[in-house]
Hints:
It is a multi-pass membrane protein. GO terms for molecular function: siderophore uptake transmembrane transporter activity; signaling receptor activity. Belongs to the TonB-dependent receptor family. It comes from Achromobacter pestifer. 7% of the residues lie in helices and 55% in strands. By secondary structure, it is mainly β. The chain has 3 domains: 132 residues, Phage tail protein beta-alpha-beta fold; 104 residues, Beta Complex (Ferric Hydroxamate Uptake Protein, Chain A, domain 1), CATH 2.170.130; 526 residues, Maltoporin, Chain A (Beta Barrel), CATH 2.40.170.20. The strands form 10 sheets. The chain has a 22-stranded antiparallel beta barrel. A 5-stranded mixed β-sheet has the order 11-17-18-15-16. Strands 8-9-5-10 form a 4-stranded mixed β-sheet. Helix 2 runs antiparallel to helix 4. It is globular, with a radius of gyration of 27 Å.
Amino acid sequence: MTLSAGRYSIAATRRAGAAPCFVLSSLVLAVGLAISAAPGAARAQSATVSIDIGAQPLGDALLQWAAQTKVRVFYAPDVVAGLSTRGLRGSLPPEEALRGLLQGTSVAYRWQGDSIILSREGGVTSLAPVTVLGSSDPQVTEGTGSYTTPATSAATGLTLSLRETPQSVSVVTRQRIEDQNLRSLDEVMGNVVGVQVVSEDSDRTDFWSRGFYIDSLQYDGVPTTIGLSMYGESDNDSFIYDRIEVVRGATGLMTGAGNPGASINLVRKHANSKTFTGSVSAGFGSWNQYRGTVDMSTPLNEEGTVRARMVALYQGRDSYIDLYHANKQVFYGVIDADLTPSTRLSVGADYQDKRPRGSTWGSLPVVFSDGTATDWRRSKTTAADWTYWHTTNQTMFATLSHRFDSDWEVKADWSQRKSKYDAKLLYLYGELDRETGTGLRPLPGYWNSYAQQTSLDLQVKGPFNLLGRKHEVVMGAMRSRYGEDFYRYGFDSASLASTGNFYQWDGSFAQPTWTTASLRPTVTHQEGAYGAIRWSLTDSLTAITGGRYATWKSKSDTRDQKDSQFIPYAGVIYDVNDTYSAYASYTDIFQPQDNRDRNGNYLDPVQGKNYEIGVKGEYLDGRVNASIALFKVKQSKVAVLDGDALVPGSFEQAYTTADGVTTKGVELEVSGQLAPGWNAYAGGTYYTSRDAQDVSVNPERPRAMAKLFTTYRLPGDFSKLTVGGGVNWQISTYSEVSAGDATVTAKQKAYAIYNLMARYDFNSRLSAQLNLNNLFDKKYYLGGVGNQVYYGEPRSVFVNLTAKF
């Protein structure tokens, strides 16, 4: 027999004489643990909550009921096996909602303290393994059906509600990922408030927030050094993640560097189910897209204390861009084991492999040599028919955590990530003659690169009492080693053909003769120790103070640098009432840079200060979160594009630095369930960024953006249908580019992209979903580098069929 409350589980085996006593004591202790683990989930039989549960298998419906009511449910698997429910929606007391779900199922329930125990009517208490619903981790979003989360630890390491966190945090939940069909990290980031996605070419994507480049990426809270775009990290498939968290502003406390843009945290799915469950899907869409997925979870022992989850997918697609085709394979597996009632071990691995052909390096000319603007068809390519950019990322990880009776927790995270890319590409550069189509010159490139990062993070956190009040503290230390071997092949320039008339370009350009490769190794070491205390000053006032001491050392044939910095952090939160909190936060900025100047020298680290004040609101028992934030960033040594200059000996864009850069702005965000059946996410950003001479910095980044997406499940006889839609808007931008001996201004007009979705539940296990993106087929620039532009995707459609079991 197993009774479990979150991580707590007690197993009993039948032994003569001892079994009845042991079973009884196990039952008493397990129920006691369940009650103590959910003190806020009082019976509240008369308090109403918002319920939105569709027709589906009863076990899945109970999972949603537990998440929406915060009440734990115990039952043996055979109690719900083969049963379904018609679903339920409305504002109801939890018990009334449960009765509605169980109607016609022959399943009975009874209260045991603050928990529910289910059994078949007329049956007896089962000695089979017992399933418990209601995750012990409040941050998990899978199965909640929500667009928000009750808690996050991404900003400070402390598990706090969004309202208690003195920074701007966006959490893209599992439900929102599925509703919007956001299949990759770049698609997710394109739908986060304040974030701009910039495509340099067909396979490299960068992210910017508040006008700053985002180079901070974490997996389950562990920072990584591997770059986002070169190794394909920006195209990570979202299917293996429970949620994606974005902390905007400087995040040096948790990441080791204080870049003021944002930090991205990818949180993997885990094996939380103690019964066999899963799903399969198949999807088809524009440009011969096809995608198949499998996601299965199962217990590995009778008690369910050891569980496994396996995720796999395969995707292939052509493109709106000529010659381009890409295949992607993803595998992920994890084993979660409750070693003791308070000790958990997670061990897993993931593998992502992307193999595109017809890859572009760079984009299309934005102006002709006479300074007039170009207007290409969106299918136009600069690739050759032999180009490709293969990327592979594989990770092994392990997490061991233990919670003490005093509510203190210690956790150790280890991970090793191996990445590689193999690319043969062709770059077309120069000034294009508008009349003849000539003037572009070819530059081929052939690279292999292998990177490996090993990280270890130790963390301890818990409460303590001081001066009659309860406070919380988190402390930790991390160490990582990153090594990269970069091979660059030369080529015989005599073997290069002419590009000819670019108007007639079809990619049939002869591959050059490659010569011997040169090796450029790089090794980077990072170490850090951090800590933060959440002080309960009064019933309404809390403060968070802390900091991180970080050391950084990097060595290569072109670089031998090391640095260290203490990064302070401070925040204060005042609860105005039960709904609103006002907050303010401050942290230093320290960010080593990989950008180089026109002389080939690496830029000095960015330094500065980050300020933020705001108001946060929590509505409808936490089902809706909203915030408004004012931010100000003062920096020195900020990287800005150095016109069209390149790093010597390469076609890497050169940068220079700007001092006295001040960025200030405002952000608004709201997310959650506004009413039964109605989920919504909306947000907007406006900011300015100017240097000491009052000159606009990085004007190619939009100063204002707004994003909205909402879904609604129809009531009554139409409750099997969910419809939704949204819009992403950005203000106009410009950049200065060269044309002959002159400098001209290239502009991108303001634009809005509208998207729609619809999902139909045929029955409790089978559903179909349609997503239509760029409804009005808007033509716009999604990015580009220097004198080049990359067009965004035209109107597209994707249909997905999902079966659950």
